Sequence to fold (150 residues):
Amino acid sequence: MSGPATLAGLFALLVAGGVGFPVPEDVTLVGSGESAMLEAPGISIPLPAPFRDAVGPTTGHKLILGIRPEHIDIGAPGGPGGTITGKADVVEYLGNEELIHADIAGFDLVALLSSDHRVRPGDALNLVAIPEKLHLFDPESTHSLLRSVA
Fold:
């Protein structure tokens, strides 16, 4: 595949690389149906319903995950937003928000959190993602699983 479709797919993937999560990190689909999970070191997120048809029932399917910084929060593990565990590396205080660079099993995740959390460098973090706001890409085609590229 070449031309505009390839460029559009690559652009979508590059944009995902700037949305908070490192694009090269593959997540693995574990389980199927309502119990399907996206898993990688430090990450365990239930597969949101809109992606189930696009991904199919294959356990072990590799995907690329993108999460925008504003779609991450601190929360209890195991909820609908899953669990992302790591350690705060850099904290940039922005008044009513904090821009956090967290080390998630060796990868840098960027989160934009409320300053009410008062995160400090070195703090252990239990983060959650807003499931409806996840971006998933096919690593071979680089296309979004929810958007067809014409």
